[in-house]
Specification:
Strand order of the largest sheet: 2-1-3-4
Shape: globular
Order of helices and strands: EHEHEEHHHHHH
Domain GST C-terminal: 84-214
Number of strands: 4
Protein name: Glutathione S-transferase
Largest sheet: 4 strands, mixed
Mean pLDDT: 95
Strand content: 5-15%
Domain GST N-terminal: 1-79
InterPro entries: Glutathione-S-Trfase_C-like, Glutathione-S-Trfase_C_sf, Glutathione_S-Trfase, Glutathione_S-Trfase_N, GST_C, Thioredoxin-like_sf
Radius of gyration: 17 Å
Low-confidence stretches: none
Pfam families: GST_C_3, GST_N_3
Number of helices: 8
């Protein structure tokens, strides 16, 4: 069985976990914080970033996007990458957007309100929170609103890696007690509500709830 090395509350670890859950691929979690000196983790992730990954054959590597790309090659059922070349390109572009521009905004709030206080003895900076809410998050949600053509998926009519990456960040906003305004971003709200109804999302949130309730 494959092992994801990291902390489920991390949005990037969450993204890798969600991909496994969507594809119904069994995995284990080894609780490893960023920068850990754990020997296996350092072999998988020399830069100390989570998630690291160990395949069931013992191969080690890291990065959520790499993990999902590997997973897709090994487990072809329930594909997360569209077969159409144009949609494929759009999906991996939106995954990249979610991992960079979007996560910059969502993680800023997530750290201030959740991760910092819970794990790093950080005191929430209210001025920074206000800045993130007013200046960083709205442009991201505006962009996503414009990319949605249906209520359920960003690409075509089935779940893709783009949906998983974007929803992972939206889950961080939920954890940070940020409510998406359904008057401003109705399509994003519809997409997110549909994603939260999936068994994979429910399983992921249940796993995280156990961590935050400790």
């Amino acid at each position: 069985m494959a092992t994801i090395l990291g902390v489920p509350a991390s949005p990037f670890v969450r993204k890798a976990m969600l991909a496994h859950l969507v594809k119904q691929v069994p995995f284990e979690i080894k609780m490893v914080p960023p920068g850990s000196d754990d020997e296996t983790f350092r072999q998988a992730s020399p830069m100390g970033k989570i998630p690291g990954y160990q395949t069931d054959k013992g191969t080690l590597f890291s990065d959520s996007s790499v993990i999902i790309a590997y997973l897709e090659k090994v487990h072809t059922d329930t594909p997360l990458y569209p077969s159409d070349p144009e949609q494929y390109a759009q999906a991996i572009w939106l995954e990249e957007y979610a991992d960079t521009k979007m996560s910059e905004a969502t993680n800023a709030l997530y750290f201030q309100r959740v991760v910092g206080p819970a794990f790093f003895e950080h005191t929430t900076d209210q001025e920074r929170v206000t800045q993130v809410i007013n200046e960083l998050i709205p442009p991201v949600l505006d962009f996503l609103e414009g990319k949605l053509t249906s209520g359920n998926y960003f690409i075509g009519d089935s779940l893709s890696v783009a949906d998983v990456a974007i929803a992972s960040n939206l889950m961080s906003l939920t954890r940070a007690q940020y409510t998406i305004d359904d008057n401003k971003w109705p399509k994003v709200c519809a997409f997110y509500n549909h994603f939260l109804s999936l068994d994979a999302a429910k399983q992921q949130l249940a796993t995280e709830d156990k961590i935050f309730s400790r």
